[in-house]
Amino acid sequence: MDYQGIIIRPPSEAESLILQVTVGCSHNKCTFCPTYKNVKFRLKSWDIIKNDIDEAKMLYGDYVRRVFITDGDALILKQDYLLKLFDTLFESFPKLQRIGIYGNTKSILRKTVEQLCELKEHGLGIIYHGIESGNDEVLKRVNKGSTCIEHIIAGKRVKEAGIKLSITVLLGIGGKELSFEHARDTGTLITEIQPDYVGALTVIVCEGTPLYEEMLNGTFKLPTPFELLEELKIMLEHTHMNSGLFMANHASNYLPLKLRMPKDKEKAIELINEVLKRKDTKMLKPEYLRAL
User: Does domain 11-289 have CATH number 3.20.20.70?
Assistant: First the structure.
């Protein structure tokens, strides 16, 4: 398989065939993200992609049930290209059930509902949408390139097309200054979109990123572990999902939680309150176990 650079995938795609179709990220300007810095976004040649598909077919054949398309935001590719790719995958893997892909707000909004429905008919089962925050000031500061209302429109468009939607939000990305506003508004945004899955990760400030420089010069102050838990509690209090999973069990999180909404919500808030009351660091994941 021809893998170029850093390959990332959602935790839920651990058993999927990872097919790299693009290299880098179409936006690549978020201040917190170190993943694709100094990498120019590009589409790999069809010959390389087809060779990877043929190799995977020879090696894994009937074992492939799911395929995840990388890198960041391959959904931005032209409709005809995606349809050709999806059809080739289903022709190559007879037991393939679902294709997953990263899609940012910009790439989703470039597709009409009809186009998204067409992609679903050709096997697209889930879109992973990195929202990070529901607060416009936070989005502006981290240079996300999209607004809260654009996030909502994009998320609802995916849902209208009948495609599963998994959104990612970042605890701590508002810093100490905007912690409450970030938590409150993100919970409100989640409620508005009603995604199938929410992944709440905790920001890890990486050396070499603009956010790291902001932290060094004091314009960004990272909340403490217990302040991050307070942020998670506020976010949950403002999140009213009719169904779905809310997961804060990523390697970056201090207190791993996996909730089936809405039934597990109050119990989770009670647990967070107990941890905040006791302020016992032994109840938190140690720093050496945290990772991106």
Answer: yes
